[in-house]
């Protein structure tokens, strides 16, 4: 079953999830790469399909977790 617009992509084959790689550069800095050809289409949408964001919500949640733990300070 397809995901609704604005919701994270529904799991089908697991290709998107399996194509996500993370590398820590320093204790507070990491690099994420996503190798699925269609990853950007899902995150940002196309002229024919609304976005199904999955990366930005994860970044936002991680940022909130770091703020709550006192690891980061708010930029505001």
What would a concise description of this structure say?
With 76 residues, the protein is α+β, with helices and mostly antiparallel strands. The protein has one domain.
Report on the architecture of this protein.
The chain is an alpha+beta fold and 76 residues long. The chain has one domain. Helix content is 32%, strand content 17%. It contains 3 helices and 2 strands. It has helices at 15-18, 39-44, 55-68, and strands at residues 20-26, 29-34. Strands 1-2 form a two-stranded antiparallel sheet.
Strand order of the largest sheet: 1-2
Largest sheet: 2 strands, antiparallel
The ordered H/E elements are HEEHH
Strand content: 15-25%
Q: Span between N and C termini?
A: 40 Å
Mean pLDDT: 90
Class from secondary-structure proportions: alpha+beta
Radius of gyration: 15 Å
* Count of individual domains: 1
Q: Which regions contain 5 or more consecutive residues with pLDDT less than 50?
A: none
Number of strands: 2
Write the layout of secondary structure elements.
Elements: H1 15-18, E1 20-26, E2 29-34, H2 39-44, H3 55-68
Antiparallel strand pairs: 1-2
Give descriptors for this structure.
76 residues; alpha+beta; two-stranded antiparallel sheet
């Amino acid at each position: 079953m397809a995901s609704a617009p604005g919701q994270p992509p529904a799991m089908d084959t697991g290709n998107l999830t399996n194509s996500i790689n993370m590398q820590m550069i320093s204790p507070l800095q990491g690099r994420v790469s996503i190798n699925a050809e269609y990853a950007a289409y899902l995150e940002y949408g196309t002229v024919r399909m609304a976005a199904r964001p999955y990366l930005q919500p994860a970044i936002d949640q991680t940022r909130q977790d770091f703020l709550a733990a006192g690891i980061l300070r708010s930029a505001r």
